[in-house]
Amino acid sequence: MDETIVTDDGVRLWAVRSGEGRPVVFCHGGPGLWDTLEDVAGLLSGVAAVHRWDQRGCGRSQRLGPYSTARTVADLDAVRRHFGLETMVLLGHSWGAQLALRYALDHPDRVRGLIYVSGTGIDPADTWREEYRLRLRGAVSGDVERWAELESRERTAAEDREFAVLQWSADFADRDRAMEHAERMATPWLGVNFECNAALNAEGKRDWGTPALREACAALAVPALIVDGAEDIRPRRAVDSLERALPDASRVSLPGAGHLPWVEDPEGFRAAVSAFVARVG
């Protein structure tokens, strides 16, 4: 059953709980998107009570700022309190992996374990972004010229979805099914919050890659599991510095999988994540 969480500044967040077992809270990607992790919840239904939510301004949550990492961390803590969790395992995907890491750094006593899925590490984005852009252009399915045109100008709501599907098609290793998977991600289409996306990405450019962040990660006494799809177009070397910095981290790379590794290797993903949850939860 869908639930409504009211944050300390009065913003309403959508959330849902499913499954039984150890408490795991998901942080979806973006920023500015919505929860697309229902399939992951299904994979973990036998081992975890999964708590999913749409971040502030996104999807089914109230479209109202302010948008900042600190504000989103506070919203995540509101989710924890709403469900009565003293501690939890955090699973974050892509941008959500960065959010889950930041929450663990700020509140390590409330996190039993961190599952960092398809994130981009703690180095500055300019160390990997150009290579990612080249790979993205080469991996877009269908009409790459159409994708480039849509990227370069303002779009209608329908064109936003078209652009997203073309871009998301690059996130899958199986090129024959890439558009099918991307269409499924975009259904239902809940609209991208570009204001949120711009604000949080700008903040990330300022804050990630600093010595203070590396030192904080080195002091984090929370077990971590890093899960990658080996064929993710975001260079996986971007995550190496995070793996080196964390004192208690293991890493699983799933062959033949892209940015959403549970889609292309569900059994490998389920096995890795379930074992970690059982160990730390």
TrEMBL record:
Cited InterPro entries: AB_hydrolase_1 (IPR000073), AB_hydrolase_fold (IPR029058), AB_hydrolase_sf (IPR050266), Peptidase_S33 (IPR002410)
Gene3D superfamilies per record: alpha/beta hydrolase
One Pfam family per UniProt: Abhydrolase_1
Keyword Lyase tagged: no
One GO CC term on file: membrane
Molecular functions per Gene Ontology: aminopeptidase activity
Ranges of residues in domain AB hydrolase-1: 23-264
Biological processes, Gene Ontology terms: proteolysis
UniProt keyword annotations, A-Z: Aminopeptidase, Hydrolase, Protease
Enzyme Commission code: 3.4.11.5
Similarity comment text for this entry: Belongs to the peptidase S33 family.
Protein name per its UniProtKB record: Proline iminopeptidase
Upper classification of the organism: Bacteria, Bacillati, Actinomycetota, Actinomycetes, Streptosporangiales
